[in-house]
């Protein structure tokens, strides 16, 4: 794959300007941009033939493409990535967007889930895309874990947290479990879990099982391993994905192929079990990340873009994420500051409530 930063640095001023104008025109209208249109926008007065030659060079570099027989060009995924990384001018958040987000977050409702639900609707309304909000899981240290057998194929794990919060989660245990193996598994987990949050416990379980493989009863070990997904609670009530604004994407799509891609996108979202992967997208660093088309495995078939940012609790741990999905011709310059500001504000509100 071409190093986009290197490619950009090797381009002359004329090529950069032609490339920038093509991308900006495409992001604004969704239509291919032709050489005659660019002759009216270029700072340097050049002929349409000269611009066509530059466009052909950019096409050879894999940055532009000709979708139809017409002379117009559109950016490729590689071209959009280079534009976003090197030429995108992110606007300041406008006052109206800021006030709407502030009002949504600071509505006086103490329920974090309700607040994040409203945030999803506000984001989709402000950006005219679909919004994603990954709600936080409970991150207090665990005080006690207990298994309760309900039937041969059904068991309950009771999680008691240090802050008094109690959760009951149903799961299917491995076959052949006995009361003694359940007690042994619970004793093992309680020894490992002391002082750890759920996410910290998940990382510690595998290491401890490997260390104590011989000492731990086979049935108890299977029970612990089977319950590993339960500790993460992926897709459970305490960590869920809120998606708002499906109609926004459908309303902007005139072609059947585009409609089909958007249906594929929402099918992917609805089927996806490991929604916590949205955190993985953002955990490599603070701030907004932009994924274009196939750069994001989840959206590779639909060819959509995702602008996502994590939010953190008072301990600066990432506990959730907010984002916007749209076509690759998203208005990135406007969407990025909206997502960034929303994530920071949500994190501040959750951190402040945690201190109370």
Textual characterization of the structure:
The protein is an alpha+beta fold and 356 residues long. It has 3 domains: 4-86, Winged helix-like DNA-binding domain superfamily/Winged helix DNA-binding domain (Arc Repressor Mutant, subunit A), CATH 1.10.10; 95-137 and 238-355, 2-Layer Sandwich (Beta-Lactamase), CATH 3.30.450.40; 142-232, 2-Layer Sandwich (Enolase-like, domain 1). It is 49% helix and 17% strand. Strands 7-3-10-9-8 form a 5-stranded antiparallel beta sheet. Strands 4-5-6 form a 3-stranded antiparallel beta sheet. A two-stranded antiparallel sheet has the order 1-2. Helix 2 packs across helix 4 and helix 6 (95-105) packs antiparallel against helix 7 (112-127). The longest helix has 24 residues, at 332-355. The protein starts with a helix and ends with a helix. Residues 228-239 and 272-276 have low confidence and may be disordered. It holds the Pfam family HrcA. InterPro entries: GAF-like_dom_sf (IPR029016), HrcA (IPR002571), HrcA_C (IPR021153), WH-like_DNA-bd_sf (IPR036388), WH_DNA-bd_sf (IPR036390), WHTH_transcript_rep_HrcA_IDD (IPR023120).
Short description:
With 356 residues, this protein is α+β, with helices and mostly antiparallel strands.
CATH fold title of the largest domain: Beta-Lactamase
Number of discrete domains? 3
Annotation field: number of helices: 15
The N- and C-terminal alpha carbons lie at a distance of 50 Å
**How confident is the prediction overall: mean pLDDT?**
78
Are there runs of 5+ residues with pLDDT below 50, and where?
A: 228-239, 272-276
Q: Give the amount of beta strand, in percent.
A: 15-25%
Which CATH C-level class of the largest domain is it?
Alpha Beta
Q: Write down how many β-strands occur, each being a DSSP E stretch of 2 or more residues.
A: 10
The major pleated sheet works out as: 5 strands, antiparallel
The SS-based structural class is alpha+beta
Helical residue percent band: 40-55%
In CATH terms, the superfamily of the largest domain is GAF domain
CATH architecture of the largest domain: 2-Layer Sandwich
Gyration radius (Cα, Å) is: 25 Å
């Amino acid at each position: 794959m071409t190093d986009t930063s290197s490619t950009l640095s090797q381009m002359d001023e004329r090529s950069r300007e032609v490339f920038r104008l093509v991308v900006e025109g495409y992001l604004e209208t969704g239509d291919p941009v032709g050489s005659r249109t660019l002759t009216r926008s270029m700072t340097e007065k050049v002929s349409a033939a000269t611009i066509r030659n530059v466009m052909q060079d950019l096409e050879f570099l894999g940055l532009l493409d000709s979708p139809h027989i017409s002379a117009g060009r559109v950016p490729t995924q590689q071209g959009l990535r280079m534009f976003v990384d090197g030429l995108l001018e992110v606007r300041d958040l406008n006052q109206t967007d800021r006030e709407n987000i502030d009002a949504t977050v600071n509505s006086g409702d103490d329920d974090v889930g309700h607040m994040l639900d409203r945030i999803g609707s506000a984001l989709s309304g402000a950006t005219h895309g679909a919004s994603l909000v990954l709600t936080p899981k409970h991150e207090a240290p665990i005080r006690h874990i207990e298994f309760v057998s309900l039937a041969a194929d059904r068991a309950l794990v009771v999680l008691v947290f240090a802050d008094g919060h109690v959760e009951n989660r149903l799961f299917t245990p491995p076959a052949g479990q006995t009361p003694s193996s359940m007690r042994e598994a619970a004793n093992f987990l309680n020894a490992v879990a002391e002082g750890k949050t759920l996410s910290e416990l998940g990382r510690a379980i595998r290491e401890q099982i490997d260390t104590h493989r011989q000492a731990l009863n086979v049935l108890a070990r299977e029970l612990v391993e089977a319950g590993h997904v339960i500790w993460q609670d992926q897709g459970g009530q305490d960590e869920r994905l809120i998606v708002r604004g499906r109609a926004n994407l459908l309303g902007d799509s005139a072609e059947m192929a585009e409609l089909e891609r958007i249906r594929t996108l929402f099918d992917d979202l609805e089927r996806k079990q490991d929604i916590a992967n949205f955190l993985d997208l953002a955990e490599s660093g603070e701030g907004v990340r932009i994924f274009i088309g196939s750069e994001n495995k989840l959206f590779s078939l639909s060819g959509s873009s995702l602008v996502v940012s994590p939010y953190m609790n008072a301990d600066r741990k990432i506990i959730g994420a907010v984002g916007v999905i749209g076509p690759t011709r998203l208005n990135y310059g406007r969407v990025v500051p909206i997502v960034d500001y929303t994530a920071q504000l949500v994190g501040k509100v959750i951190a402040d409530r945690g201190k109370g």
